[in-house]
Automatic annotation (TrEMBL):
Protein name: Uncharacterized protein
Species annotation: Paenibacillus hunanensis
């Protein structure tokens, strides 16, 4: 399996589509590199990626 770069929105749509309205467009557009690709991404891993992306976005907002 090769690495794959996807937008966070693709991960959210695959695993937790109900979360889409809760996330900001900037968060949804974040690029995520998946070591083993989107096809085999597990929900627990997806949730961890989503949480981390939200925290990263908040940290960037505070620094500005």
């Amino acid at each position: 399996m090769e690495m794959e770069t996807v937008k966070l929105s693709q991960i959210v749509m695959k695993c937790f589509p109900d979360m889409m309205p809760s996330l900001k467009q900037q968060e949804l557009n974040a690029l995520i590199v998946l070591r083993d690709g989107l096809r085999i991404l597990e929900p627990n891993d997806a949730l961890e990626i989503i949480q981390y992306s939200i925290c990263e976005n908040q940290d960037e907002q505070l620094l500005q």
